[in-house]
Write a structure and sequence with these properties.
single chain, alpha+beta, nine-stranded antiparallel β-sheet, three-stranded antiparallel β-sheet, globular
Length: 307
Amino acid sequence: MKKKSGLSKFNSFLAVVLVICIIATAIVIYRYPKITETVVADDSNTATDEATIDAFVAGTYGGIQFDTVEDVVDYYVECYNYTKTLTAEYDEDGETKTYYKLLGDESLTVENLLVEGKSNSTIDALIPGILDSLFSGSVKGLPPATNRDPLYDKTDDGTIDFTTSLLTYDDVLEANVAENEDGTINITIQPKGTILAMPGEDSQGHFFNVLGDISSTVESISVLSFSEGTIDENFVVNYTGGSGTVTIDPATGEITAADYTMYVHIDVQHANVLVITDKSASLDIVYTNHFPADDDYLMDSRGITRK
């Protein structure tokens, strides 16, 4: 029987976190209207799809010639695909399991929660508690991934398989290569920004563990409505600025380490929450994956030990 995708569960969680944050904000403002410690948002922080990583420089790195960004992307895909063929045995609660050789951790933070363009220290203090009570990081393969087990690393309906990369040159805003002292190379890639990214279906979904279509989850929250316009007009999920860096052994083509950071900026307009009407709100989600996960994380998150 196919297991339910971890990505599906994670996407639902992110939607719930967003709505809880907005509701918490509304409650604080309603109950504590005299709180005045606010900071006006800096409009210069508005997300734009600009390169945030170094530009590509053609050359030979780790004995491999890279003439174009397309060469970089092609090599990344080649190494990603090879690395995801590599498995290892683990002990999980006394049972032997076969998972990806390279397993990573995940973490999430919510930042810059603003209502009507202003932040509030009381509201900000609520966020860590909300995250701690709802979010527990899991163990996954290289993103995009739904699972640590290659057999289940696909979307719930089985139509998109993540054991091979879907990334293409057209997905990439910028990429670069650097050589390390030990002969390995680092490839850094920044995918093009998208609105409401879908797993395996767009530039962000080809590179990160994206939220997917969370509009239906938001629509199901009975206390949230909009004073005008549609949910698509008032609920904008903007992915931009994130990147990932992988370390590759050129002798084997294996990815030995990696760090991915995905940035999501969410804007809500004309929101009605409880007795609060026609408010705007925004927040940033920073989602990271680090490889390899350390032994403590494997044990604490899923009771896994390396054999």
